[in-house]
# Entry
Amino acid sequence: MRIALFATCLGDTLFPEAVKSTAVLLARLGHDVVFPPQQTCCGQMHVNTGYQREPVPLVRNFAEQFGDPSIEAVVVPSGSCAGSVRHQHQDVAERYGDAALRAGVATVRTKTYELSEFLVDVLGVTDVGAYFPHRVTYHPTCHSLRMLRVGEKPLRLLRAVEGIDLVELPEADVCCGFGGTFAVKNAETSTAMLRDKMGHITGTGAEVCTAGDSSCLMHIAGGLSRIRAGTRTLHLAQILASTRTVPHVLTEAAR
# Structure
């Protein structure tokens, strides 16, 4: 398949390795991965903060950049950004867009997928040939769990990783407290939620906490580093891209 990769803002600015790993993984599975260079923010931050008219140019650009008929699928290493494209873009286009925007959004949203659902639902694979000999726990992010309803798909992929010691995260489906601007506007509540999440993560004894959203991992990683927990965070794509030939080498975590 000819697959377009959407990097997302955080992937572009703070977590490029998650984006690179997504490209490496898809290419290893035999697909042609392209990167539309004029892609920008999907506008999720604006919509979530209540500015629904402002992201119209961003939604239009997304539809233009990824609307090429030769692109068979758009893959996003982020449940929240994939959810924005699939759901919020349609709302923005219907409320504030013109006919061309509505048509463009309708075309692109049907071929946009979060990484795990693309691998399992579209490609029909769970064993991607990964190797990661470490103790890992998985945090299901809110948008992937509740908006996209990816369910067990990330766990099915992780269970097939050679060498992994996958341990269940208690109260996994409870929010980590990030929520984008929620963490800024409601800092005390966010911090309390993060404290609970960190307690469950460290209780597993995992070396790595993984998830499908760099935003949540950023929030969790910040908390874990402050308490010097010794637990790292790593995007799901980086685990799946790791192989015996080219293994991912863990960096030392703060203790």
Summary: Residues 79-96 form the longest helix (18 residues). The chain is about 50% helix and 10% strand. The radius of gyration is 18 Å.
